[in-house]
């Protein structure tokens, strides 16, 4: 069979093509021009901004491309905006960080761009084969980026652990796809979803979905497949940790929500109950262990496990309220966590120093503006109104209550209260303890600009949450 590629296909897949071409251009520039760091930075930033605008403009245009392998507009474009925004903020934060850490900037930006491209493929996938291609493109870039601070043993260890465990999880995904294809007779996601009720009696199909769920739970950092997260986030360059924990998590959840659509989750009660248990364990384990952390990066790593549990609650709900809540939560979480990791990267010294709670003592006196931004990110992550994090949790918990999973919503509220302890602990350290001494390092204006954009997005989403919900309401 010959696949005809039309100009419409190329136009609708434009953001992905644009990001890929930008990555190739940066690769060529870095190879041909000596000291092309500044040029690579601006080309990467320009390409991501253009992709964001293109994705935003195409949200209202829905359809399929490339013979039904890709879905265009709508859902995929919404996530394209999230991925491009995370990429833009990460690139802005990385300019000073990579120079300070001695990281090769050209290669760094290339890998970041191709990771964004893989994420866009995942969210726009209308077929399990395209989903897998996008997942592997993103994952391979992340494996390398995690070990990009080559001079630090912790970074090398992070890359190795992530690669080995990620390859193991990929085996579950592939076997799951094979079983689903064998029983459903197709890898097209829409066709599989439409056959859900017919396949409820097929044990092999349920096993295939279960294996797919295992692989995706690993990617979203849910319990019990969360063991890699603290070590990888701590060892990886801080800007990479922020990018992985936001855009990477959003990409995995975009695929999770596509494959485990409300119709699928509602039809297979066995998987729904398992997902509910995974969500509950993720919230409990992530929050409880985060309390004992003295390293801020590890605290944020364990909190990301808890946030995976909150978001999974919206998928368990299997209704439009929960699904739209997941989309809002992912948009809010992206700007919250990129901002939090951005502050760490801004203040971190060469060799990964100044990452503990004790080293942030009195930051409110020595660097009041940066401390104020960090406090805002902590308030939002804790779910304190009127910030975006509060409404993200409200929508997914309300969806769970509507679906009859009231116990899961109550557990989520209780765990949110627990999380306030370690988030607000950092705020107390910054503002209510005397500084040991001044922080002399200059603050990069470009990085501060990224933090200000993140803070503005948190406030905007918190004050006008219905703007996002009105945008996503027709996706489900």
Give a quick precis of the structure.
77% of the residues lie in helices and 1% in strands. It is an all-alpha fold.
Topology:
Blueprint: H1 7-12, H2 14-32, H3 37-57, E1 63-65, E2 70-72, H4 74-101, H5 105-124, H6 128-146, H7 153-184, H8 189-194, H9 203-220, H10 228-235, H11 238-259, H12 262-267, H13 269-291, H14 296-317, H15 320-347, H16 363-366, H17 368-382, H18 388-402, H19 406-431, H20 445-463, H21 465-472
Helix pairs in contact: 2-3, 2-5, 3-4, 3-5, 4-5, 4-11, 4-15, 4-20, 5-6, 5-11, 6-7, 6-11, 7-9, 7-10, 9-11, 10-11, 10-14, 11-14, 11-15, 13-14, 13-19, 14-15, 14-18, 14-19, 15-17, 15-18, 15-20, 15-21, 17-19, 17-20, 18-19, 18-20, 20-21
Structural summary, described in words:
The chain is mostly helical. It is about 75% helix and about 0% strand. The protein has helices at about 5-10, 15-30, 35-55, 75-100, 105-125, 130-145, 155-185, 190-195, 205-220, 230-235, 240-260, 260-265, 270-290, 295-315, 320-345, 365, 370-380, 390-400, 405-430, 445-465, 465-470; strands at about 65, 70. Strands 1-2 form a two-stranded antiparallel ribbon. α9 packs antiparallel against α11 (about 240-260), α14 runs antiparallel to α15 (about 320-345) and α14 packs parallel to α18. The radius of gyration is 21 Å and the shape is globular.
